[in-house]
Amino acid sequence: MQDRSNQSHTTTGPTLKKGLRARHMTMIALGGSIGTGLFLASGTAISTAGPGGALLAYAAVGIMVYFLMTSLGELATFMPDSGSFNTYAARFVDPALGFAMGWNFWYNWAVTIAAELAAATVLIKYWFPDSSSMLWSLLFLVLIFALNILSVKGYGESEYWFAIIKVATVIIFLSVGVLMIFGILGGEAVGFSNFTVGDAPFHGGFFAVLGVFMAAGFSFQGTELIGVAAGESENPRENVPRAIRQVFWRILIFYILAITVISLIIPYTHPNLLKGDLENIGVSPFTLVFEKAGLAIAASVMNAVILTSVLSAGNSGMYASSRVLYALARDGKAPRFLGKLNKRGIPMNALLVTTAVGMLAFLASLFGDGIVYTWLLNASGMCGFITWLGIAISHYRFRRAYVAQGRDLRDLPYRARWFPFGPIFAFVLCIIVILGQNYQAFTGDQIDWSGVLVAYLSVPLFLILWLGYKWIKKTKVVPLQECDFTPAESSGIKE
């Protein structure tokens, strides 16, 4: 018997509250891709592929993310739902794909909570080197849980201020950088000389750029959270498009300009660019530039900013994963008790289960902070690209079904430009990223099977979820004429 869990249903009792205002949605979109990928990984990217290679890789991924966000914007404004990607995949592709995408997304962000908490303990030890990892993990977990248990406004408000800190830091950095380039700060004008150092602007050839391409993809993960947040937006038909439209400009300003400024001031041959990681915060490329400008407290300030970025990612992970788990239970794809809401519209059981997974961060105190952080990050890394792949497929099928059922495209509250090029382009690039995730494991004299396992484990797990559900429930690809366009009001979201 074919699964019908993608069809509409009515609910009684408490409902999700639409408490996210326009400013919350804007900052969730704006802050989604500003984090350790910009503050730390950008230095390694420049060192690996040169300034030109880093800019090329980040620009290509930025264009892909822009198309993905416009695809998601079209879906989320037409059908705002906290289930987001799994709801769209179930309705417009196959219920089995929706099931697999939902659990993949939940796992990704639930593990990200643990990874970010482990990272926070590393960062806090910059000031308190002999303190307990267990204590800090518990403290940060309680903080994130408290922000999510109050109300959806608690999450929105905290993300708003987290994003303000990150945005302000980048704007100050760009301003200082420009003054340094023209010699107003830091002594002599550097001009464009560092773009021609060594074999710059491109260094390391095609595979170096490909490697940065992978890292850039990780940096932008989080932008898709706006699809989940749309389900609790006060006015998704206006707020989501407004936030989506800023994606392209924030990528241009925050990544492209930041990498350009770093490359102009710090040559790609600088040895400390390769050390910009959590345990070497003193040589974050942002820190290097600030110190060169004569700002002696740069390392402490950047450590504090990166700490807020890490907590922001954990906060978003808690919110998004609990909402998607709730939606899975609501649709019959997870245990029913996870679909219960309290009087404030918070999916408490889903939140508690997700928090329990976040407690994996406590392992940091047992096995060493950096090791656990790296292991957790590798365990969830591929999942984000699988989510993006699903968004591209869902939007392509949505638009085709919309037209096949005789609907007028002019009635869409937001229409993605460049269809079908946008989702097809994003699909192809996501496939390249997924397949090339750890190409180095196959280039030596012998295949590095442990490297293959770490990099690609998420793929067979996703396929098991997808094909296993398909086999048990006997689901089929939904014909275009039968795709369900029922509004999401019937899915437990309070207007």
Automatic annotation (TrEMBL):
TM spans (from-to): 27-46, 52-69, 106-128, 134-152, 164-185, 205-226, 247-268, 293-313, 346-367, 373-398, 418-437, 449-469
Name of this chain's protein: Lysine:proton symporter, AAT family
S-adenosyl-L-methionine recorded as keyword: no
Any one annotated GO CC term: membrane
InterPro entries: AA-permease/SLC12A_dom, Amino_acid_permease_CS, APC_YAT
Coiled coil regions, renumbered to chain: none
Keywords, alphabetical: Amino-acid transport, Membrane, Transmembrane, Transmembrane helix, Transport
Amino acid permease/ SLC12A domain mapped to chain residues: 24-477
